[in-house]
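Notes from the pairing session

We agreed to fold both candidates in a single pass and log them together. This is the raw record for the first candidate, unedited. Please don't reformat it; downstream parsing expects exactly this layout.

Candidate A
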Amino acid sequence: MKKFFTLLVLLTAVLAVQGKEKIKVACIGNSVTYGHGIPDREINSYPAQLQRLLGDNYDVRNFGRSSATLTSRSPMAYIKQTEYRDAMNFKADIVIIHLGLNDTDPRWWPNYSEEFIPEYRALIDSFHVANPKAKVYICLLTPIGHQHPRFQSGTRDWHTQVSDAIRKVAYGKGVELIDFYTPMYCHPEYLPDALHPDAAGAAVMAETVYKNLTGNYGGLQMPLTYGDDMVLQRDMPVVIAGMANAGDKIGVELTANGKKKVASAEAVANSWGQWSVELPAMAAGGPFTLSIATLKAGIAASKTQNTHLIYNNVWLGDVWLCSGQSNMEFGLGYCTTAKTDMVEAPLQKRLHVMAMYSKYPTNNIEFPKEDLDSINALKLFRTAGWQTIDKADLRVFPAVAYHFGKTLTDSIADSTLHIGLICNPVGGTPLEAWIDRRTLQYEYPQILYNWLRNDHVQDWVRERAAKNIAQKTNPLQRHSYEPCYMYESGILPLEGTALKGVIWYQGESNAHNSELHERLFPLLQQSWQKAFRSASQASPALDFYFVQLSSLCRPSWPRFRNSQRLLAARLPQTWMAVSTDVGDSLDVHPKRKQQVGYRLGLQALRHTYGRDIVSQGPEPTSMRVEGKTVVVSFDHAAALRTADGAAPCTFEVAGADGVYYPATATIDGTTVRLDTRGKVAHPVSVRYGWQPFTRANLVNEAGLPCSTFEL
């Protein structure tokens, strides 16, 4: 491949000087290549846009035919069309084939899938007959959206199977593979009819082909997770990955004290511009300098592109992702402890932060068109990159994340262990916005359809989003509340990052439907598990800590809080911090965040760091009836007491009729005895803290509160 690229560049230069024939490029395909539905397709189809990118030394021709299939069983088989004969007569030097979308039709793939690979191989061979020196590229299919009428009845799955077959063809024939799927998959707005790209989508296709042909990917580039003051995850192989021009040789070196080499490795960027190296696992420590350099240029060298990147004050430590909605986003400068926090935070020398802030807060306003365009382009966030905590804007830095990190550094005496906090919460975002598209397409496709009028999405979420995008001109205008959007704008840029774990504070925008949340929450964890590398030695699953919703006068919240409690008990490596005692009856953004971050920190110290500490409040385990008394037993209940010294309150008991009555509660060791004073003759269930804003007061020796529960 590299030899070909070198010859191609030389050939281009020679032709430019001698004025000989141009390099001929044939774009083979169906209606997507043809440019169906694109206004002025003669200038806006992907082959036309590719011509402009490649310039005058190339002659790019569009041989697309609408409805064309690869399979010869179809009357629209490409090899039966005039466009195929014209392409053969063109005798192209470079052939780009994008076929297979129409083969997902139920008439073809279920019946003739076994013939797909042999027929694709034969098609490639035919272009080599026309020009034995032709360079053939085949393409992974452009996406098919969930709105397609056959999406769930088979097309979704057959699209995947066709793409897998195309990969096998590329491997078996030794031809280059161009990926149209990945750069378009996160942009459903490019597919107005769920199948055919618009002009913007065609531009992405043209740029993708251009990069594959020229090897020019913009030079050495690193993800936004790289920068001065960054933290890399300790105690596991350190994967350093980025982009460069195809064929570039990249060297990576980690040094200490400005010169002592700690680790180094080299890699060559592949035909898609991707490269990665793996450094050995290392213990906590630093500071280091991370140097990444182009050691030898491939075939697209440019003096205007980066060739050497240096990152200083790099540490090996523990990296935590801190995410969710507005209560995780809530700034340190607005907390009840703000005055103290603003003084103490700059002294936390072992805390490093990378804060990502939404450029478009979802206030009750209509966004201007330029903002809508940026949102569609997934340009939601602004960030200053990695910083030590003393350099951050503490007033707006997420308070819960800060107090979580502070709890860890205050409790772990090892001065070499630095903590990195990556924060990307966005106010109002529902859970489904943080799950990747493929997971929802397969596990919960109902939530994707017409989401602004979809009862699976909370009504407030839909109403606010509709207000924000009222000035839209694109019917597929996107929004941060849209299912998948936050994953695509806020998680994909972090993909591949190695994490110690996750802290999560979200639920206010899903509290209308706890049953739906119970289905979505495990999907979120599965989705993120695929996106991130886990530092856990015992299990590949990420340690996941979340905050239970606090107290607020919203009727659905008691049931939702109990649902969260049961999720934490059921899901592996998942733990919860209770916050009902620090809520506000009228404000969805309670200001007592120090306790919330501290409690998350306690859970992490116990379950991730193995500290023998009390990290959660009393947890109900069972109930039994003794005469007229109900006895509730608890775990984590040493020195069971009340926070205010009064009698335990908010306990209720019900019989078979399901009617709950207040009960008088008495603490007895690690149990609580309940008496309904004869109102419930045969108790069958107990609940506690079952008020939207609750005065529940049961705590244990560590002063940690008991959750809302129903037994």
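Candidate B (folded immediately after A)
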Amino acid sequence: MKALKIITDDPWLEPVADVISRRYRHYEQLLERINNDFGSLMQFAGWHHYLGIHFDEKADGWYYREYAPQAKDMFLFGDFNRWHRTDCRMERKEYGVWEVFLPAEKYKDCFVHGSKVKVLVHGDNGWYERIPVFSTRVVQDDATKDFCAQLWFPDAIPFAWEADKPQTKKTKDLFIYECHIGMAQEYGGVGTYSEFKENILPYIKKAGYNALQIMAVAEHPYYGSFGYHVSNFFAPSSRFGTPEELKALVKAAHEMGIAVIMDIVHSHTVKNFNEGINEFDGSPAGGYLHAGERGYHQLWDSRLFDYGRIETLRLLLSNVRYWMEEFHFDGFRFDGVTSLLYKHHGLGCEWSREEYFGDNVDNDAVCYLQLANILIHEINKNAVSISEDVSGMPGMTYPVASGGFGFDFRLGMGLPDYWIRFLEKYHHEWSVGEMWNTLLHRTRQTKTIAYCESHDQALVGDKTIAFRLMDANMYWHMQVDDNNMIVADGMAMHKMIRLITIALGGEAYLNFMGNEFGHPEWIDFPRKENGWSYFYARRQWSLMKNPQLKYRFLADFDRAMIRISKKFRLMSADHPLQLNVDEANKTLIFERAGLIFVFNWHRAHSIPDYHFRVPDSGVYQLLLNTDDARFGGFDRVDSTTEYHTRKMNGENMLSVYNVSRSALVFEKVR
């Protein structure tokens, strides 16, 4: 077999070439099996068109089918039969599938849009009322808090996608605005898809972001799980509105030129019986999961998929196809890839070549991710797929045909961790050289999404960058005429951290909603400990809009930073060129995309006539200045000044006022 490109490109992988080749053969053999048995990967990923509840025009009635190989008996019941649990018995068919047919002649007046159903499953674990696995609508009763499947036949006319144009951002610079629909509004309650479309989308467009990454889309019983304990994989969360309202949100984003990425959770599932798929057919594996210890994630208190089962692959790949075709999502951010890839889930692990290619890797999970990426790009060749992997597994963004996983991007998960460590010691000894090396710690082939802080840092128990920098001062000293130096220093650092991260950290950029203007409050979802309050499960946009407060300065800077990054194609530019590392003055200078970046991180050293070399001679002008008064700075540098290079020892040199706690970006104008 010819050596895979991932191996020929990276000599470090040569000692494990056999392992990588075996993985690739495993993928090839499985894909061949799928093509032989099902016709194609697309056909294989169409299980949702067969299982679940569907109207059959030829038979003139509804079929409900469910995969439950170990079930002893099954009954469909609900509003249509006055909740008589054992009136409508299902029949066992081939390959572990159960089926029942409801003729329209008998049920057309009761099996209708909006009515509710469940399935009663008799298995080795007893009798349980369950929600059909392929339900596309699941609702919760306000009084009993019980979840139930809801028939969703809104009308005979499909949603009007005709004018919709899915956004193709893979080959363009990607600026992602990560959001949570429920907590995106300012009032104390659960926001809706429609409110987000009307109130937040225009702001995201104005801010310059061209991609929206939505958390918590698939139904989850516990609101405070941030959407990561999914129970119903084919049902958009009803707490935010109807499926049509989600579609309208996606379509409106597309009309604004904004791609929509779904945060998809295929790494685990909620352990609940009443809502989820755990032990669905009465067996420990339930048809889709690992049984025993391997099927349980102790840290997350959730159940784990068995990616070696063909039915699990059909379930998850059908889910990928469903969200792309039914809701026009432009791609996915795959959550928990590290947990999915390793049998130890990455807990307490020191990452090494031996870990990446040893016995702790779940090769069935590797194959699932490869198939998922092939399918995603078969449906939409310009779709975006993102891996949330903290392990640094090699080949994450290599094409599958080259021996990789096929993702378009990986999240630069080490960057938020670096900034936490940096802020813990930045009053003491730290290195601008280390900053440079950390932000560029990736291979040229590994397309990375840079971000300063994760959504987890906005939660109670952690701190955002703004809170680490300014803490309680944000409550009392954010008025425009307040000269509090902790706030001034914190705002300066907030801008600098974002600018250097976008300039060096990756090939795309991500921000969690509100962080761009230093949102002062944490996220605390309603729970018993806070009296089930929504007070902190919201975003206070009014702070940013208030002309008397400084939050608007941070938002204005973020907008300017994104605009310049777009104009100069910063994220897709060649590798940056280091020009100066000055540890004594904490100054780092580099070139990227034809722009010169000067970062002075020192608390006190402002240096007139600071000389440094630049690649090209000519005239330069200040393009962006974090110290600009319009961004809440002290306006210590004149933005109208022109800077002429001069020769010194054969080098092109610039001389600038190198201002403390600021970053200057210069453009060559002639």
